[in-house]
Amino acid sequence: MKFKLTLWKMIFVVIMVAGLYSSFVRFFRGLGAATNMTDQFPWGLWIGFDLLCGVMLAAGGFCMVGAVYLFNVQRLHAVVRPAVLTAFLGYLLFIVGLLFDLGRPWFIWHQLIYRNLHSVMFEVGICVMTYTTVLFFEFLPNVFERLNWKQPIKWINKIYPLLIVGGILLSTLHQSSLGSLYLIMPSKLHPFWYSPALPFFFFASAVAVGLAMTIFESTQSAKAFGRQLELPVLVTLGGALLVALWVNALLRFEDFLHRGLLPQILKPSYEAYFLWLELALTFVIPIAMLSFKKVRISPQLLYLASISTLLGFITNRLNIAVIGFETYVGHHYVPKWTEFCVTLMIIAAGFALFGLAVKYLPIFPAEESHPMAETKVIAATPVLVHAGD
Amino acid sequence: MSKALLYDATLCIGCKQCEGACAAQNKLPYDDTVAAEQVQSAHKYTVVLSKNDKFMRRLCMHCEEPACASVCPVGALHKTKEGPVVYDVWKCIGCRYCMVSCAFGQPKYEWGSLNPRVRKCIMCPDRVLAGKPTACAEICPTGATKFGERDELISEAKDRLRQNPSNYVPRIYGLKEVGGTSVFILAAANVEDYGYPASAKIGETPMPEYTGKVMDRIPDFVPVWTLVLGGIYWVTHRRDEVALAEAQEKAAPPEGKRNGQ
After folding, report:
1. Does residue A3 sit at the B interface (CB-CB below 8 Å)?
2. Non-local CB neighbours of A316 within 8 Å, separated by 6+ positions
3. Where do the domains of chain B lie?
4. Domain spanning B3-207 has what CATH number?
5. Which residues of A touch B232 (CB under 8 A)?
6. ipTM score over 0.90, yes or no
7. What is the pLDDT of residue B255?
8. B112/A32 Cβ within 8 A
9. B85-87 and B108-109 as β-strands: parallel, antiparallel, unpaired?
10. Which of A58, A161, A241, A258 has its CA 20 to 30 A from that of A201?
11. pLDDT for A320-364, tens place per residue?
């Protein structure tokens, strides 16, 4: 145990050092020195992974808040706090990632004064800014509880319905808008990934990823912090994930069919290989797994199914951001090592901050022995308060 | 009135004086090395390409409805009523969405700079405003690049096609592509051979319409979706309140009531 800890800490330090060096290259030598982006490939790993995947992976926040506070699925209450924490950290780190990618990050606030209402990027920017603020307020009760401040918690509870509805509205808008970003490139993005339905795909996949991410993070935290897994929670999430994946798969199939792409998809080609990989990881493997009851009630197998889903949709986003442009551009883009290091540093920082938050804040319910009592309190007031506290 | 450029490749002799004049106008370095570069870049807004003794110029097309201007989150690019699509560097945040969205791949970036700018042909807006032709058109010794009123240049291009049909591929590139541009190209060869995107591929729909279709729905979507979400919230929580009240009544009948009073 002790050795394992030091090993992880060593890896963490190595990533941080490499990441800081890469940050130095980025901000003191320029984007050209730090990345393999070119005039032909102006968007690379930082847009493909940090932006598209980052926002997608943080979707667990609005999914769980929606499930528990909007649809009142009280069984899932235990996972709301970690999901909101993940989302909050995810958005903060995504903004950090954006500061690396923007050529003139010190002017990021220009979005607030030089508004171009026709720009999808403007809409995404404003939604992300506002939603991060919403997440901050959804996260605040953790801090207030830790400090034992009763009054501010009451204030937050008063505006909680607003936060819930506003948060889900903003998430719907910007999750789908990340897909809309690519609508203007019909001649550049490969037809496997360019579709007028991109905004729908992006939103639908965000919901599936939100569920998968919550399974992943619950299992992962249970392992890391030696907590007991709440099986009924995982079973509920697994069932919902299966439904979400079917919806996604049918949407994609319908789109391919409608645009007459099925014969092209079956023919081997550079793009087809990546599409096959994506479809296998997003749909074939997890749907096949989750169709068995044995899988849906096994934490270990649920965990594997969720990892496959996550990797699948990450592949999807990278296909859209990178692979789908390679034929148009005529050459490959492979990120420079400094690009990888910055992304890794941001991810590592995320894990570290999550660990710190769990250690010092009441993220996980302290005691789950009175689930009924808790349900009653929650039912009475839409509050982020645990009965045990 | 809107101005435009007509480039007739059959008149071009490949002297590259337009490249030099462009560099001088935009205060960019120009020497034999730059002249030999066959690609556009942050320091070369226009290039004269040669292939099989035929020449072809590339430059920003100054679309009538430019994708770059519609996607820019801070409105750093815009189409002027005189024709040029211009760039306000002081607004730019460097997201490079303009570069990704442009069907002609025109905006280039100063990748080596710590305060990078988007670079592209801006059709000499100061000269155009002053009633002068662009630097490239002014210096062109053969009239291959011609500056003028957009409408007049279109009729002139049509005339040339009509009078010498054997000289040209029968089309005016830029007339209908992505809804029309302010740069028209006549040539004996296919412009696609010189890196221009195929007309069929980019289509005749103005690029901003692809995202506009979605963006236009947002003002309707927001109130409707807010109502739906708020409604769901109200229903589910109302149900709970009722259930709780009923449970309390059952659990604590008369005494509870008396205590409450």
Report:
1. no
2. A205, A278, A282
3. 3-207, 217-260
4. 3.30.70.20
5. 70-71
6. no
7. 52
8. yes
9. unpaired
10. A161
11. 999 999 999 988 999 999 999 999 999 999 999 998 998 888 888
